[in-house]
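Schema walkthrough. Field components (list of strings):
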Amino acid sequence: MHTVFYVSDGTAITAEVFGHAVLSQFPLAFEQVTIPFVETLEKARLVRQRIDECFAQTGIKPLLFHTIVDPVLREEVLRAQVNAHDFLNTFVTPLEQELGVKATPRLHRTHGMENRKLYDDRIDAVNFALANDDGITTKEYEEADIILIGVSRCGKTPTSLYLALQFGIRAANYPFIDQDMSALDLPPALKANRHKLFGLTIAPQRLHEIRNQRRANSRYSSLEQCEQELARVERLFRQEAIHFLNTTSHSVEEISAKILETTGLRRQLY
Amino acid sequence: MHTVFYVSDGTAITAEVFGHAVLSQFPLAFEQVTIPFVETLEKARLVRQRIDECFAQTGIKPLLFHTIVDPVLREEVLRAQVNAHDFLNTFVTPLEQELGVKATPRLHRTHGMENRKLYDDRIDAVNFALANDDGITTKEYEEADIILIGVSRCGKTPTSLYLALQFGIRAANYPFIDQDMSALDLPPALKANRHKLFGLTIAPQRLHEIRNQRRANSRYSSLEQCEQELARVERLFRQEAIHFLNTTSHSVEEISAKILETTGLRRQLY
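Field assembly_structure (string):
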């Protein structure tokens, strides 16, 4: 099995996320090793040794995906016997031409705290999602960017948290319970913010499986109950002309990206 | 101002995250436009038009960072007047040589649901973080991968959620309150899981600011109270030989990467 090293003088999250995306194009399994915060020559030497030991042990030349800003540290790591790919500089050189500006490489430029205000807004969004999870309160909907609605366990909470952490979006979520749905009407707090509403739905069988893990063999988790709730809530979405999305075969990333595309909500990148 | 387009036939999150990292090396501001799910020729044509209109309006050739798998759709988008950077294929071609295997490009290979089990584990980790937030319960610590401990508002909750969403790690967190700290002893539930403990601390002034936003001019938020709590909890960390980290100038990404580095906890990549 090939070993791939993700190495950075920062968190190495960019190298990881991007390296993982590139490697997922290959029909192979990889042993993945992440080494963040390579900020000293001593640590760079240890990385080089570790890569060389891996080569000696496996007989297969390892892969290295790196985002090391300091050229001295980078050179040291690149002395290893390795197939190296420089994620940043590969694009920085042509971009310098296109932009007519020299790059000014800086450490911790992403995933850091360079802009305290932006960072605080993001953490505020996480706190907002928690404080407004699962209809705990409906009093802060004025401050919400979006309000996700749907039956219990259709994916509202993980999506709210992802929108907050990844994009700094203030997402509340509200669960429909029997009472709301039998009237087939929106509760007042939702009506007052209907331009912020976005519906989530899910296949009855999948909802049944998810709920069964929580409360096995209950009325709540029965396929019949799931079918009824979903039929009602989808009728409500249609009646009220609320955009909605079926989450059954979508990840939180996909759900979030579709919500942003549909609503045109402005995202923040960190 | 330069406009940059992030375009993909998937979520475009890879293009966004990586493009943002590359561009942050330049001392410029960018207008950023993300266009996900370009899955049809019609949509590819609209993207091309939108890029060309941007060029016509601004007179500045836009940048395009893309991860479009389908060659027909890619060609269509690339007919635009644009400085294009192909994030995936730039590395795929040399990797095919190094790995001795042809790439098998597939849609939604990352940020999708190809592996339902992995995805469900990740959502379970998010639910675990929520159910074990802020010491709500201490009964599930057997199932935790890590237990973050520290005073109120030092960064435990966002870090727990990030570890869950990004890496599928089951992170509980427990807040120290006066009572725990005056005894300078670990509560029994923590003692029984001391190999899982990781401490967070923060500068008193910063904690004072954060708490003041919650409860202005309270004893809880006073600088004196913050100083006392932090001094006690740090003494406890030292006394019990618990690894700890000062979060004052670190983002959740940095805190999480440092925790993983220190503990050697295995991460999952999605």
